[in-house]
Design a protein that fits this description.
heterodimer, A: alpha+beta, Alpha-Beta Plaits, three-stranded antiparallel beta sheet, 3 helices, 17% strand, elongated, disordered C terminus, B: alpha+beta, Cytochrome-c3 Hydrogenase, chain B, 8 strands
Amino acid sequence: MANMLQLITRNLLNKKQTRLFPAAAERPAFERSRGRIILNPDTCILCGICSRRCPSDAIVVDRKEGKWELDALRCIICGECAAVCPKKSISMTNDRRHAAEDKEIIIHKVEVPVPAPKPAAQKTSAQMPNEKEIVQKEDGTNSEVSKTA
Amino acid sequence: MAKTVIPFGPQHPVLPEPIQLKLVMEDEKVVEALPAIGYVHRGLEKMAELKDFNQTVYIVERVCGICSFMHSMAYVRGIEDIMNIQIPERAEFLRVIWAEIGRLQSHFLWLGLLADAFGFESLFMETWKYREKILDLMEMTTGNRVIISANRVGGTTKDITPDQTKIILDTVDTLEMQMKDVEKVFFDNYTVKQRLVGVGILTTQDAVEYAVVGPMMRASGIKYDLRATGYSAYKHLDFEPVVETAGDSYARCVVRVKEIYQSFDLIRQAISKLPAGDIAVPVKGFPKGEAISRLEQPRGEAIYYVKANGTKNLERLKIRTPTFANIPSLLKMLPGSKLQDVPILVLTIDPCISCTER
């Protein structure tokens, strides 16, 4: 009995352990806290690796139309997409998201410029003289072979 | 004497997760208990066959909302065993640190629920106040409070910086001092002892016959803790299992409180011996083969059977969780007890029904 009374009096005399949220300010998030996933469209190459690695199929990448969609309600904020992106375009913020206020599914449509298709290598007669072509030999090394030869 | 059947659960204030026990009563005494489980079955073992073996780490963590880190640890250890991957030493120690912090938050949660079960709400709030400090440690190092996603096949995803280890050690020291006051309430308070001493005695013979695991087994006098076998980084740490012999609910409470102190000590040892190095190795290819990995979760021994056939999906994942092994002993302890002891008995096995029915 005396032990609990000691704890109770100590609690009464100390400051409050709880916060009167939302009237009081929220505790600042830690540096590594998980918040939202955001994409930087300038560096995205639409490779689709993030979409394949996502455990909950929240990312949909459309190469032809240049769209990158993230279903924020499916996302489990695990950080796999940010870890595997080859261009490091995806990052995770640490701001705390509060509950969604309406039932609309939030999809981020980010317009990403579709990379231009590479010109196909063609052998034409209109080639510059002394142009060299890189040929792979049988043992796997590359060597330069002159085309005009 | 006419028998009545009282349904205990699936909704009940003391239960952390839904389980139904139909109690067949004669007056105030329980004569028989008929369990019904299946309220939280989500088919996660099947889902593991439909996803990539890397994505399955995220599924396996969500089997339980309390002992989540150790599920993912057991799974990645199974896959690493199949693929013969040698992970860096630093990753082993980091996993042990997070595992022990997870054990701490699970035991603090259980102490709070036990206090709530016999109506001692202020003690419940006090214990969970300390649990918040432990959850802050998890959030500081990994970003989340319970489901931390810190494991991957080949190591861990996050590192603990030297500043963070200092904060962990300071928090552990403060909590140890504060815990010494709280434990006196659990051990010496007259009303607490009236509710716990002599309730639900499980003799050593019964404990062996019913194959109980975890703190329930150690409170009945059997000295067995899987951490003493030296898996992961435990082989470098000094460790002695905590054993009590009385076999009643009071002994189980004592075992879990002493395990809290033991976890504090293990965290200190692991941080002092943390080696430098990488936190993960790259993984190529697909697993082929089968493996069994066992580890000591807060509730007991968990067994993971992983079978892979060379493709990116697993062929079979089977999980045997500790609460599943402890439920038969609950059905042994309940007959003969009074109705007011039923919530205490259900809580002393530390029921984690989401684990039982993944």
